[in-house]
Amino acid sequence: MVRKKFDITLDEVKAGMITADYITGLNEKGQLITVVKPNSKLSELTIERMHRYNVKNITIFEDEKFTSQILLKTRTNHPKEDKEDKQTFQMTPLMQMVLEMEIDVPPVKNLMEDDLKEEAVTEIRTLFDIAKTDGDMTTAYRVVKELNNVVNYLVDTISSESNAVVHITDLKSYDEYTYHHSLSVAVLAIAIGQGLGIDSDKLKKLGNCAIMHDIGKTKVPLELINKPGRLTKEEFDIVKQHANNGRSFLERCDIGDFELWAAVAHHHEKVDGSGYPKGLKGDEIPLFSQIISIGDVYDAVTSYRAYRLPMSPADAIELVMSEIGRSFDYDIVNVFVGKLELYPVNSIVQLSDKRLAIVVENTNSMRPIVRTLDNGVLLDLMGLNNLNLIITEVMNLREIAKEFK
């Protein structure tokens, strides 16, 4: 039996409704993005998200609890059938080509489900807004408690297996950079800390430090944070104040302890002493700060910003490694590189010569061994004859198939 659908305005949306179609909005890049997928049960959080992305209308399935007589009277003339669900999503020729190959690629197991990630981002945004306006501290303490729960979840998930890795889909989001960045850095920091053998309680503290590392930026003018060109010395001096601003806010409001405050204050120190605010060197820099600084740089350069395109994950890793001895400690970077899974086995990738290939072995995290899909040739991307080839795109085949079949 075909379920009836109804178009409603966002003002008519209520928590508990079930979406019948893709709900799209615009991100900060001006691109059309999927805000909510079909067959999703709406929550207050997802409704708030739809408002943020200027969604005007959505399509829901008929439900006795929500479909009032008014809705039935005004909308039953235009029921939709399930077969129309796919029309709002744009499939590229490359996606179509991969789908037609009908290759069974195991799903990537992300560390966080989308709902938990969005809840965490909402809480981070709330805390940062309070820091910006010196707002309600009762709410701030509640948010900190909720973020503790998120960090505990991440620590438990990452610690559940000794060789846990972070996939790039755990990190990337083009919208709400500041808040997603804080969460991504926390994921990376916890993974690095686990690789360094830090115990569970310390990992939880590290995760909280990472989530709050940039909270002092709320006091920096937005035009400086987003300035496309090089900052003047005077402007950079203002931006550098965010490290101490963050520490001052957390200390003044009695959020965390000295270890957290120090980690936030010194996450821009460099091992050669050229960082700020104190110019600390080597082991003078708190370990948590050293870990956070690597995740901070990696996620920053691989994220889209209004004034520049993102760096590829592989290039970003090369950048981090090039800073060993100047910005970063060798041992920490070594663990970091081992914790990133850029190209999981059985993932479909596009090469720089436009060929599609499947990853068959990824001992070298940046230059895996792949098998081309057109003729089945094995290519070791570390081989001398293949060093000119790079991976330009990773295809999430299972997600594509789920959306179009």
Structure, described:
With 405 residues, the chain is α+β, with helices and mostly antiparallel strands. Helices cover 43% and strands 11% of the residues. The protein is built from 14 helices and eleven strands. It has helices at residues 44-52, 69-75, 93-100, 114-133, 137-159, 177-195, 200-211, 222-225, 233-252, 258-265, 287-301, 313-322, 330-339, 397-404, and strands at residues 5-9, 23-26, 32-36, 57-61, 166-167, 340-341, 348-351, 356-361, 369-372, 378-380, 391-395. The protein has a five-stranded antiparallel β-sheet, with no helix packed on it. Strands 1-4 form a two-stranded antiparallel ribbon. Helix 4 packs across helix 6 (177-195), helix 5 (137-159) crosses helix 7 (200-211) and helix 6 packs across helix 11 (287-301). The protein is globular and about 65 Å long. Mean pLDDT is 82; it is low at 69-89 and 399-405.
What is the 3D shape? globular
Task: Give the quaternary arrangement of the chains.
Answer: single chain
Question: In whole angstroms, how far apart are the ends?
Answer: 19 Å
| Weakly predicted, low-confidence segments | 69-89, 399-405
- The share of residues in extended strands comes to 5-15%
Radius of gyration: 23 Å
